[in-house]
Amino acid sequence: MDKLIITGQRRLQGEVSISGAKNAAVAIIPAAIMANDVCIIDNLPCIEDVYCLYNTLTNIGAECEFLNNHTLKIDSRDLKTKKAVTEDVRKIRASYYLLGAMLGRFKEAEVALPGGCNFGNRPIDQHIKGFRALGADVEVDEEKGIVIAKANRLIGTSIYMDVVSVGATINVMLAAILAEGTTIIENAAKEPHVVDTANFLNLMGAKIKGAGTDVIRIVGVESLKGAEYTIIPDQIEAGTYMIASAITGGDVLVRNIIPKHMDCLTAKLVEMNVEVHEHDDSIRIIGGKKLYNTNIKTMSYPGFPTDLQPQIAALLSVCNGKSVITENVWDNRFQYVDQLNLMGAKISVDGREATVEGVDALKGTTVKATDLRAGAAMIVAALAAEGVTEINDVKYIDRGYEAVEEKLSALGAYIKRVKE
Ligand code: EPU
Known about the structure:
Layout: E1 3-7, E2 13-17, H1 22-31, E3 38-42, H2 48-59, E4 63-68, E5 71-75, E6 83-84, H3 87-91, H4 97-106, E7 108-112, H5 125-133, E8 137-141, E9 146-150, E10 158-160, H6 166-177, E11 182-186, H7 192-203, E12 207-209, E13 215-219, E14 228-230, H8 235-247, E15 251-255, H9 263-271, E16 275-278, E17 282-286, E18 296-297, H10 309-316, E19 322-326, H11 337-342, E20 346-350, E21 353-357, E22 366-368, H12 372-384, E23 388-392, H13 395-398, H14 404-410, E24 414-418
Parallel strand pairs: 2-15, 3-14, 6-7, 10-11, 18-19, 22-23
Antiparallel strand pairs: 1-23, 1-24, 3-5, 4-5, 7-9, 8-9, 11-13, 12-13, 15-17, 16-17, 19-21, 20-21
Helix pairs in contact: 1-2, 1-4, 1-7, 4-6, 5-6, 6-7, 8-10, 8-12, 10-12
Bound molecules: uridine-diphosphate-2(N-acetylglucosaminyl) butyric acid.
């Protein structure tokens, strides 16, 4: 597995352009198979999760072709099977969107149970509850690791989500688009990628209203058509570079973003005494002043995203004073803490709460990426640390960050990849 070697304490300076949103891309690619037609998806990030879905769609008989690094043409006119059970499907979380997409289009689907980062329990009961409410029979075969869903007809209904779930909201939305009548999803997730997926589906002919609020209303249509769509910028990649600029006392213009999506982070950085200048589609982050402590509570959008929690923990670990992080989304998203502590951070964890005592400096050492955003936190910490940090298990980082070493090198970081 590849390693990243970072020599820290270089002030980041310059401009970085943010790639398309991973969590929108991984929903929109499966959604594209819902039309018996051709879709073109642009601004896709060059990341492993996208390649994994490319392989998955190809395996089920869609003709997929990259027109360039960021543009994928998906021709779903000749889908061979309603089964997606290969190893690629098991590798990533978002393959569960094939359930909603295939159930919607064919009224049947057999999909391997999804993989993805391990933050404790990751149930899909709300997805299943939604499919069942629409009239599908759903069976989970734990032994074979597959989910089978079948329906004679899907009929619109009202579905209340017991938890705010990005995945369940999008998946049920997919299945409901081609159902008969109207479906109402209450307590829906409001994340930018939910809205982006709904915008794409509406371009394909779906009738979805209310995406971005907690009530989504879907009027079923008979079929969808192909569409050409450009994915929104990645909120989490943008946030990671904003934090990287702050921790190195840098001056970085983070370009090609939607600043509104960054409000939750911008507010926290300002509290921490970081200078933030917002423009139409970019944000400039200037660090270098004494950093103050603050508390973070992760929540669904527009709250502070759990996917930026490890990165902000790295920043808090070099702030003045004590900060408390409360993780409200995942059971176990503090696995990176041991790694940060190896670098000299002082973080203790008690259940869903981490207490961070600010230290003067972090020190380079050998660490590993325990998952995707944990890996991003290691990079952020290493950029600020004294000496050299070796980050192992970079495959997790490659799942969600496009060209991370090229982008950081262009900002002046000393970072190189060692291929193994
Ligand atoms: N939940 C249930 N039942 C369900 C579904 C979810 O109890 O049926 C619970 C989960 O256990 C969790 C909470 O609801 O406590 C939220 O989970 P959600 O379904 O929103 O998560 P997800 O859709 O599996 C997506 C992102 C994650 C991100 C979360 C939260 C994708 C592919 N993944 O996961 O992104 O952490 O939403 O925002 O969109 C990442 O990019 O690093 C990443 C992990």
